[in-house]
Amino acid sequence: MLDLPLYNMLPRTSSIGIEAELIFYDEYKDLYKLVPSLDCGDKTDLSGLINDKPARIDVTTNFDFKKEKKPDYEQYIIQGWTFWIVEVNPKTKECRFLPLHFPRCNFCEEPLYNLVYLEPHNSIPYSTEYVSVVQVCLQCEDYNELSDYNWVTPMFAGFGFLYEYELDLINSRTLSKEEENLISKSISKEWEKVITETGNSISSLIRKEHNAPIAYVGQPEFVPLDYKTLEGYTHTNVYWKNHWAPDIDEIQYCSGGDVTDPR
Ligand SMILES: [Zn+2]
Questions:
Q1: For the domain bounded by 5-99, which CATH number is listed?
Q2: Chain region(s) in the chain for CATH 3.40.1350
Q3: CA–centroid distance for 150 within its chain
Q4: Ligand 1 center–CA 263 separation, angstroms
Q5: Whether the Cβ atoms of residue 37 and residue 47 lie closer than 8 Å to each other
Q6: C-alpha 61 to ligand 1 mean position (Å)
Q7: What ranges make up the beta strands (E) of the chain?
Q8: Across the chain, which distance is largest between two alpha carbons, in Å?
Q9: Ligand 1 centroid, distance to 145 Cα (angstroms)
Q10: Cα of 143 to ligand 1 centre, how many Å?
Q11: Ligand 1 mean position to 141 CA, how many Å?
Q12: Which residue of 84, 92, 202, 244 shows the fewest CB atoms closer than 10 Å?
């Protein structure tokens, strides 16, 4: 609860709404250049720039309640605005985004998100052969393969391999537990930085090429179910996600059947 006398005098339902707006505004004001919405009749709370497109944003504490208002937005979507409902949990301050203007799944009507899928090169290890943009439904796992780009770029797991090598080198020296912890912490920090930077650059290049916002960047990963027969399945390991994309680690999509070497 915020410690503001006037704010605390508001009826409880609207004060929760204002608190949600303030939490969202505070977290994203710089990233999305947020300003209070000028009244153009659509009853949104804030305006800004998301994915470099003008965005109208409705902040709520309950997605399901606001979803019903979707038809109100459609005339503005045609005029070039993008529309987002943001659900804020006032307790955890967690924000979930619902892009109303995204294409919808034919089966469940949930938004379809663009995944950049890094296809491993046939002969160059830790490198892509091409990358593709795949539209995925997170709800029913339906997908549409949209475009392929011939593009050789390092795979995420390749960076992981380098760090493992670095860790092996450290382990071969005589170090105290404390020194080891410090070094592995700094290595994983560096690894996170490489993932973020690589994901940022791949997603922004492909976004320009494909002219649509990118939610995820991932690559295939083999998941063994039986270590003796080496049977298993391949899914997409999500390494990078956009701020507004739902939080997930894997997508049940793989191109061209099984991939034996996940790197
Ligand atoms: Zn669906």
A1: 3.40.1350
A2: 5-99
A3: 23
A4: 29
A5: yes
A6: 24
A7: 35-36, 46-50, 53-60, 82-88, 95-99, 112-120, 128-137, 143-150, 216-226, 231-241, 250-251
A8: 68
A9: 15
A10: 9
A11: 6
A12: 92
Residue 2 has pLDDT above 60, yes or no: no
Predicted confidence (pLDDT) per residue in 223-244, tens digit: 888 888 888 889 999 999 999 9
Which residues have CB less than 5 Å away from ligand 1 (the ion)? 105, 107-108, 110, 137, 139-140
Q: How far is the CA of 95 from the centre of ligand 1 (A)?
A: 22
**Residue 138 amino acid letter:** L
**Between 167 and 197, whose confidence is greater?**
197
Cα 105 to averaged position of ligand 1 atoms, centre (Å) = 5
Over residues 66-75, the mean pLDDT reads: 65
Q: Provide the pLDDT for residue 249.
A: 93
Secondary structure letter of residue 110 according to DSSP = P
Residue with tokens 């379809």, as numbered in its chain: 112
| Strands 53-60 vs 46-50: parallel, antiparallel or unpaired | antiparallel
Looking at residue 240, its amino acid is W
Ligand 1 center to residue 246 CA distance, Å?
A: 14
Number of C-beta neighbours around residue 122 at 10 A: 7
